[in-house]
Structures are given as C-alpha cells and as structure tokens.
C-alpha cells in the first residue's frame, strides 16, 4: 500500500501484479512480467516506481507507475512502458539475481 497515492499493489500466484486505486475503487494496472508467483513487492517513497520480485525465477522487475494526469484517462488499462508499439506493459528495468550457493 502506498499511502500518498492511496494505491494498493497485489502480487498473484500466476506472476501478475494488480494495482488498485483505493480512492475510486478501480483497478489501475495489470503488470505482467513474472512467470512464477510474486514473492514480494515494494513502492518507491514517491510512488512513481513499483518493484516486484519472484524468488522462484530469481527475477526483480522495476515498473514506472507514476501518478501523472495521463494515467487518469487510462483506468483499467496497463500503463505503456517501453517502445514495443503494442500497447502492452513492459517493465522499466529487469534484474536477474542468484540466491545461496549459486551466487
């Protein structure tokens, strides 16, 4: 939960992250990048970035989820991130990591 923007992010077992606006009770974004369950997620202090992590696939993803005026007109649609030209959400940055002896 990000108190400043009153947005709630929920990670799913299927690897998606769903962001809700609690002020308007609407779904803002569905962010899909992980192929395994999301283990943890965290907001940046300013609410403009969201980090999702899956330990099962050793992957961390940073998303741009700013609260600009444009996002008010795209409620329910995934934010356009990157230049794929398809309108699909793409991560701002993806990092792979190793845990334990593999590191």
Q: Which quaternary structure do these chains form?
A: single chain
Overall spatial form: globular
Measured by DSSP, the beta-strand proportion falls in: 35-45%
pLDDT average, as an integer? Answer: 79
Rg from Cα: 14 Å
**Strand order, sheet with most strands:** 4-5-6-7
Structural class: mainly beta
Q: Give the number of helices.
A: 0
The strand count comes to 7
Distance between the termini: 31 Å
Low-confidence blocks of residues: 69-88
SSE pattern = EEEEEEE
Give a short account of the largest sheet.
Answer: 4 strands, antiparallel
DSSP helix fraction: under 10%
Summary?
With 103 residues, the protein is an all-beta fold.
Describe the overall structure.
- There is one protein chain.
- This protein has 103 residues and is an all-beta fold.
- It contains no helices and 7 strands.
- The chain has strands at 7-11, 16-21, 26-32, 40-43, 49-54, 59-64, 93-96.
- The strands form 2 sheets. Strands 4-5-6-7 form a 4-stranded antiparallel beta sheet, with no helix packed on it. Strands 1-2-3 form a 3-stranded antiparallel beta sheet, with no helix packed on it.
- A hairpin with a 4-residue loop joins strand 1 (7-11) and strand 2.
- The chain is globular and about 45 Å long.
Helices and strands, with pairings:
Blueprint: E1 7-11, E2 16-21, E3 26-32, E4 40-43, E5 49-54, E6 59-64, E7 93-96
Antiparallel strand pairs: 1-2, 2-3, 4-5, 5-6, 6-7
List keywords for this structure.
103 residues, mainly beta, 4-stranded antiparallel sheet, 3-stranded antiparallel sheet, 7 strands, 0% helix, globular
């Amino acid at each position: 939960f990000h108190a400043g923007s009153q947005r709630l992010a929920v990670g799913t077992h299927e690897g998606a992250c769903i962001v809700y606006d609690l002020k308007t009770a609407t779904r803002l974004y569905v962010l899909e990048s992980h192929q395994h369950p999301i283990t943890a997620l965290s907001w940046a202090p300013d609410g403009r970035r969201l980090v999702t992590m899956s330990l099962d696939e050793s992957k961390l993803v940073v998303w741009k989820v700013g609260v600009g005026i444009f996002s008010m007109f795209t409620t329910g649609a995934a934010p356009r991130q990157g230049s794929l030209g398809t309108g699909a959400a793409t991560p701002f940055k993806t990092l792979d990591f190793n845990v334990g002896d593999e590191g």
